[in-house]
Amino acid sequence: MASHHFWHCHVELLDSEPSIWRTFQVSSNTTLEELHRLVQLIMGWQNRHSYYFELEDEGEDGIGDRPPASVSKRRYGSLDLPNTEDPEGLTLGNLNLEPGAKFIYMYDVHSGWFHRLTFTEQLTLEQSPPRCLDGAMACPPEDSGGVWGYEGLLDQLADIDDPDYEALLNSVGLDFDPARFKVVEVNQRLQAGLPS
Predict the structure, then answer these.
(1) Where are the beta strands (DSSP E) in the chain?
(2) Residue 194: helix, strand or coil by DSSP?
(3) pLDDT tens digit string along 62-90?
(4) Maximum Cα–Cα distance for the chain, whole Å?
(5) For the CA atoms of the chain, what is the radius of gyration?
(6) What is the 3-state secondary structure (H, E, C) of 98-126?
(7) How confident is the model at residue 194 (pLDDT cuts 50, 70, 90)?
(8) Is 169 strand, coil or helix?
């Protein structure tokens, strides 16, 4: 069986405290469109909103620690967003990533769920499906208003005297636990969510 290149990738929901993150394994043959679907499943989102990846194009005239003067950002994602290119044909392999490469994944522009993806290590493995390796904390409920709205929701859920407590509890689910993360459950979602 032929070997493929894989990346260990770390995805973190920016500004979350405590940090909401996952590490996962992904093939360099994965398109950005497929990566979007993977991040949705790995984080626990429900794919209801537009998204984009923001990548930097750097010129070759950077000096020392200063970025090149010709840094520009390209967005790949939902084509209903302005200045966004189609992500379908662009693979991680096309991006010529190096260990430590980072880019932004934005989900739900109105709520502002910013994620940072960091490609930590390239491996040569036998063919393997994408899989989650580790993580922490539950994914916020969809439509909870970004990181700050989610923090407010958690504050309200911690106050059983809040007049909206029961309605909020019903909206997020009686079993919602912000500290819950189980890698087995994430990998079950991945297995069920990908075509065979």
Answers:
(1) 3-13, 20-27, 51-57, 72-77, 101-107, 113-126, 131-136
(2) coil
(3) 444 444 455 578 999 999 999 999 998 89
(4) 60
(5) 18
(6) CCCEEEEEEECCCCCEEEEEEEEEEEEEE
(7) low
(8) helix
Q: Name the DSSP letter for residue 17.
A: S
pLDDT given at position 71:
56
Q: Is the dihedral of CA 170, 20, 77, 149 positive or negative?
A: positive
Could you tell me the domains of the chain? 3-137+185-193 (3.10.290.30), 138-180 (no CATH)
Helix (H, G, I), strand (E, B) or coil at 68: coil
**Sheet hosting strand 131-136, strand order edge to edge:** 72-77, 51-57, 101-107, 113-126, 3-13, 20-27, 131-136
Cα separation, 114 vs 14, in Å, equals 6
pTM of full prediction above 0.90: no
Amino acid type, 103: F
